[in-house]
Amino acid sequence: MCRQCALNPVYELTNKRKFCKNCFCRYFEKKVLHTIRKYLLLDNTKRVFVICKTIKGKIILNILDKIAKKRGIEVIQSRSYPKTKKYERVAIEDCIDDEAFSIIFVMMGKNPSFDFIGPKIKKGNLIFIKPLYYCLDREIKLYAKINSIKGKTKLPEKNPLKSRISDFIDFMEEKHPEIKNAIVNSMLEILPALK
What we know:
Elements: H1 3-7, E1 11-12, E2 18-19, H2 21-38, E3 47-51, H3 55-71, E4 74-78, E5 89-91, H4 96-108, E6 120-123, E7 126-129, H5 137-146, H6 160-175, H7 179-194
Parallel strand pairs: 3-4, 3-5, 5-7
Antiparallel strand pairs: 1-2, 6-7
Helix pairs in contact: 2-5, 4-6, 4-7
């Protein structure tokens, strides 16, 4: 924390810790890098395919580019999923808001399947990774704004039920900060027993 954090804060955590623009960007990037290390998202990887449909993909690309050269990783940007199987990892744009929504939505279904829940998912020959796993939508928007990353923040939701569930989770997060974190962490604890 620097002097600017007290004088010109742009973001405040639930524990009342404040960040200026520079400190917030460092905090955000460290959060992403911690997720990458904790869940071994890039271990033994030479190639990462980054899906860029919104600003989330652009942010992932921005952060991965910073560490790719040091690790000898090739980072490739696209708006759609790879058609070939040569990519060792596919980085998708899911953040904690998306994951909390997915968990609740899947649990409401008749035949719940938790195959696509978690920070790292293996599907056939592809491994999907979620570097923004613990980042909130509002943190992503602020990081994009500070770094002049332009684009859509979210794709429009056409399903009214999904839209209502998403609005409800956002409402609960406002009333009970950290609830999205609690949903995701609770699911991660019981996930091995569900698969």
